[in-house]
Specification:
The chain has two domains: 199 residues, 3-Layer(aba) Sandwich (Rossmann fold), CATH 3.40.50.2000; 147 residues, 3-Layer(aba) Sandwich (Rossmann fold), CATH 3.40.50. 39% of the residues lie in helices and 17% in strands. It has 14 helices and 13 strands. The strands form two sheets. It has a seven-stranded parallel β-sheet with strand order 3-2-1-4-5-6-7, with helices on both faces. A six-stranded parallel β-sheet has the order 10-9-8-11-12-13, with helices on one face. Helix 1 crosses helix 13 and helix 7 crosses helix 10.
């Protein structure tokens, strides 16, 4: 049986991967364990490692790291701490493949540890562009990886242009779309009445994360976003940001805001998050979920600032700077406008099936590990 270890550092990546991980675990030729680290293990972020066990998945290890103060230096030190700890876990687990997703430091640390133990790395969501430090980290993980699961055809082409073997680059689609069409959801008014909103007024889902290079501006940008919502007289479900540099400033703005139109949450279970996304009159912020998942519901998205720069867009996305007046104008213009039809360039909701098939079929030999750039 082929052993797979998945590394998870946040509520977000686990939520995206949950159905795929459960599919891996149920495959007769594969076994799965999960390493939890980062925000998963911090009470102020919801102690979300419990959701891994609640999903019926084996937790191989918990790797705690310092995430405060939320600065670039803290993020750098955490990568070093995780690299050392992951080496110990991988030695003990002896997986055949280490599976990682996206562009966070946890995944970079896992890839560094795995290649030095001669363990192939499978990477999901490589080949995408987003600007900021995330793009550099994502491409670094690509160069440390051996098997690639791209979300789109363009991403696959970019991975091959980066020198990856075409036969090791597979278009799976985005795992976060799996199951969206079958997840039980209530009607909009029922969802928002339960949250105490006036259902006659529009409601946004707000996810606004810090950008490392813009950490010093995080508070001012956040205030501009909230003021835009207030000026447009929109209500909002506000989800606290991740732990990257600048997150403390964002949280402080949220905590000091006393508007009765906002409902603030440290964490929402995946099913609740998806239900609110589908019901919302718009998403506002800079989360990849607005770029990727929201299109499957036709939810309009105001994508703010540079964090998702150059990602492939669906028809539901409007790009804006973090400017109060422009946000307010855009929200006012959305009120009462028909939603775009659900249509998503990031896949068809069957990524997990394709990922499992390739994890089962991929030949793991010296040629795979001794990778060279193909030009």
């Amino acid at each position: 049986m082929r052993k797979i270890v998945y590394v998870s550092g946040t509520r977000a990546d686990f939520g995206l991967m949950r159905s795929t991980l459960q599919r891996i675990e149920s495959a007769t030729s594969l076994s799965l364990s999960v390493v939890a680290t980062g925000m998963h293990l911090v009470p102020s972020y919801g102690d979300t490692w419990h959701e891994i066990e609640a999903a019926g998945l084996r937790l191989a290890a918990r790797v705690p790291v310092e995430i405060s103060p939320a600065t670039g230096a803290t993020m750098t030190r955490a990568i070093g701490q995780m690299t050392t700890a992951f080496a110990d876990v991988f030695e003990s687990e002896a997986p055949d493949i280490v599976l990682v997703l996206g562009d966070r430091g946890e995944m970079l640390a896992a890839a560094i540890a795995a290649i030095h133990l001669n363990i192939p790395v499978a990477h999901i969501h490589g080949g995408e562009r987003s600007g900021t430090v995330d793009e550099s980290v994502r491409h670094a993980i690509t160069k440390l990886s051996h098997i690639h699961f791209a979300a789109t055809d363009q991403a696959r082409e970019r991975l091959i242009a980066l020198g990856e073997r075409p036969d090791c680059v597979h278009v799976s689609g985005a795992p976060g779309l799996d199951g969206l069409d079958v997840t039980p959801r209530r009607a909009r008014n029922e969802v928002f009445a339960d949250l105490g909103f006036d259902t006659e007024r529009p409601v946004a889902l707000l996810l606004f994360h810090p950008v490392l290079q813009e950490a010093a501006e995080a508070a001012n940008k956040t205030r501009a976003v909230l003021d835009g919502l207030i000026q447009a007289r929109w209500q909002a479900v506000v989800l606290m940001p991740n732990a990257d540099a600048g997150s403390g400033q964002i949280r402080a703005v949220y905590e000091n805001d006393v508007s009765s139109d906002f409902r603030k949450y440290v964490h929402l279970p995946r099913a609740d998050f998806i239900e609110i996304m589908a019901a919302a009159d718009a998403m506002v912020g800079n989360s990849s979920s607005g770029i990727i998942e929201a299109a499957s519901f036709g939810t309009p998205v105001l994508n703010l600032g540079s964090r998702q720069n150059l990602r492939e867009r669906n028809a539901n996305v409007i790009d804006l700077p973090e400017d109060t007046a422009r946000i307010a104008d855009a929200l006012t213009g959305l009120a009462g406008r028909p939603r775009p039809a659900p249509c998503n360039v990031y896949g068809d909701g069957h990524a997990g099936e394709r990922i499992v098939a390739q994890l089962e079929a991929q030949r793991l030999d010296a040629e795979l590990l001794n990778k060279v750039l193909i030009y």
